[in-house]
Design brief:
Helices cover about 60% and strands about 0% of the residues. The protein is mainly α and about 180 residues long. Helix 5 packs antiparallel against helix 6.
């Protein structure tokens, strides 16, 4: 008799940031709130409540901001790929709500410097909507902010891309280093 090997199915969603944040939510959720079968990850991402992160990560402002911005990026990318206008607008609306929640974590009113990730996420959303002028203003604002206290090259690359798309090749190539 030949033994049949059980194959472990590859789970690519475990390697992505969105997959990790969703898996963290599933891992730390009360057992009574999980469905009996393996949950559909897309449905989990769409039904995500941003205030739930605060119960699991009360002292980790940067991590909460990163999770919310990652989910917002997921919705922006889903909206860009969507052909149906209603579904596209729904994804953009969800991304906007997640970015607003991420911006509220570190406010200037508390005396804290705002995080760079929500501003970059909002610029990504405006680019997906086709608002290039608003996206460029947000990218310029993000260049002066820090990402978790450190410099980040993403706003610089976004600015170079915007300049390149406008045909300003020399300015795009001569962007200064963020460090």
């Amino acid at each position: 008799a030949t033994r049949r090997r059980s194959r472990v199915r590859a789970q690519p969603y475990r390697r992505s940031i969105v997959g990790r944040s969703i898996l963290l939510r599933i891992q730390f959720a009360p057992r009574s709130s999980l469905p009996a079968r393996r949950p559909d990850l897309t449905a989990t991402a769409l039904a995500f409540d941003p205030t739930e992160i605060e119960t699991y990560y009360p002292d980790s402002k940067y991590e909460r901001t990163a999770i919310l911005c990652t989910l917002a990026s997921y919705h922006v990318n889903m909206g860009k790929a969507e052909n149906d206008k209603i579904r596209r607008d729904d994804h953009f609306y969800k991304a906007d709500g997640l970015l607003r929640a991420a911006e509220l974590i570190k406010q200037k009113a508390n005396g804290e410097e705002p995080e760079q990730a929500p501003v970059v996420g909002r610029a990504h959303l405006e680019l997906a909507k086709g608002n290039l002028a608003a996206a460029e203003k947000l990218v310029d604002a993000a260049r002066s902010l820090k990402d978790g206290g450190a410099g980040n090259v993403l706003p610089l690359l976004m600015k170079a891309r915007l300049l390149y798309d406008r045909g300003q090749f020399a300015e795009a190539q001569s962007m200064p280093s963020p460090w």
